[in-house]
Amino acid sequence: MRFRDIFLPAVGFVLLWNSGFIGAEYGLPYAGPFSLLFWRYAALTGILFVSLLVRGRLRWVGWRSAGVNMTVGFLAHGVWLGCVLLALDRGVPAGIVALVVALQPLATGAFSGVTAGEPTGLKRWIGLFIGFAGVAVTVGFRIDLGDAGSVFGYLVPLGSVAAITAASLIQRRLDVRHDAKVLPVDLALFYQCAATAVVMAIPAIFAERLVTEWAVPFVLTMLWLVVGVSLGAYGLMWVLIDRLDATRVASLFYLGPPVTMLMAWGAFGDVPRGMDLVGMVIVFAGVGLSCARGPAVRG
Fold first, then answer.
1. Cβ of 40: how many Cβ atoms within 10 Å?
2. Which UniProt keywords apply (predicted)?
């Protein structure tokens, strides 16, 4: 396989995926966090519905299978992005949010042994603790402990980490067991998006009254989040998984913090601080330790 067959999709995925943080921040002045999520996932659900219907792939899979996939979707999309948007809405820089949520692969790796019935090496646990230490360094120098809004804004992304880790572990358990509730990617995504849209409608309507300013910048932002990020980045991810192993594709998520920081710098003038970079280096040290392989055992 040629180098460009891997390099170009990888670059496209990293740029599209992490532009989601920037796009969300652009959209928040025009709609509340829950309303923005509702519109985004309602649109995604409609697009997937039509696509599946036209291709003859739309079907009801039963409550057991649908329920599991809807739960995964609510955690991996609704809670994950909901916590991200709440942090951005309270003025937390996109790069810092990306740094916090970058803990998710570390947490998933540490806890996956319990789910898959496999032992988790000590290096993974130490790597996870080092990663948390790196985030603590960055957040500790930015958070205003005397401001409840600041405390909430900087800590709520940890909810994203917990939610998507739980979703990943549920999916991992289904894969290990070769469970029948594992659906084709497009059908699973439809159920995930539908569940997210339905659940997000509740706070969007009752807490935010679905107030939305349908200005041109908001419409363009929504188009980008739906087509560029949710469909484009997700599609490139599956192209990469088809050409590489899943572990190497997952490693691309670790490029999120520096790429997002650069994007936020260019888009909003969020200049990274010295301790942001120190924290990021510590997180990457934890990643390196967690991913390092032990010495080969010779027989």
1. 27
2. Membrane, Transmembrane, Transmembrane helix
Which residue range forms the structural domain that includes residue 180? Answer: 3-291
Could you tell me the sign of the dihedral formed by the alpha carbons of 141, 270, 259, 161, in that order?
positive
Is 298 within the bounds of a domain?
Answer: no
Bridge partners (DSSP) listed for residue 31: 212
Bridge partners of 212?
A: 31
Predicted confidence (pLDDT) per residue in 35-67, tens digit: 999 999 999 999 999 999 999 999 999 998 999
**Number of Cβ within a 10 Å radius of residue 202:** 11
Residue 299 lies in a domain: no
Q: How far is CA 163 from CA 80, 108, 156, 232, 235, in A?
A: 6, 11, 11, 23, 22
Looking at per-residue pLDDT, the higher value among 106 and 98 belongs to 98
d(CA 102, CA 105): 7
User: Does 297 map to a domain?
Assistant: no
Which amino acid is residue 96, in one-letter code? I
Tokens, residue 21: 């943080």
Instruction: Tally the domains of the chain.
Output: 1
- By C-alpha distance, which of 152, 155, 147 is closest to 100? 155
Distance of CA 258 to the CA centre of its chain: 15
